């Protein structure tokens, strides 16, 4: 039977308006996101390896200050390479992550629209990173971009080429409130010296 162009009655369906459980045909966002990052039989992997720099915190939740920080100026040692904090001024640990990166600068770039800005304000590129549900990133942590080999793999040793400061870390929840993925909003840090690219 062909579909009527102008049906006079609604098609009957047994589907409940407010189903209490998934029908099986529902999209599993966590799985979809994993397939976006790592690929599947029908999808090419689009994730990119990088580093999450987690800032260490004390029991009070405060960042742990590096011994190189000057007591008077409160500034880390930027004249020589500090092997503990690499110029951050705070101690941290790094771990490898796979993310999906999206530049969302609202000014030039994707939108191609010039916006007049106040004096002294620069056009800071704003970047989203999407991370897997288990990562649990926090504001104050940083994403460190690494240079990849031509085939997309990582190099040994890592060559760090950019640091992104996290401003917000948003967990996207769906099925029964579970975290499906993270979207973190970041701004790129200005390169302060040459030795941090290690
Ligand atoms: Zn230090």
User: What structural class do helix, strand and pairing data support?
Assistant: mainly beta
Number of strands: 6
Largest sheet: 6 strands, antiparallel, barrel
Helix content: under 10%
Low-confidence stretches: none
If strands are numbered along the chain, what order do they take across the biggest sheet? 1-2-3-6-5-4
- Fraction in beta strands: 25-35%
Keyword list:
mainly beta, 2 domains, six-stranded antiparallel β-barrel, 198 residues
Give a nutshell description of this structure.
With 198 residues, the protein is mainly beta.
Characterize the structure shown.
This protein is mainly beta and about 200 residues long. It has 2 domains: about 35-55 and about 95-115 and about 125-195; about 55-90, no CATH class. Helix content is about 5%, strand content about 30%. It contains 1 helix and 6 strands; from the N terminus they run αββββββ. It has one helix at about 30-40, and strands spanning about 50-55, 90-105, 125-130, 140-145, 160-175, 180-190. Strands 1-2-3-6-5-4 form a 6-stranded antiparallel beta barrel.
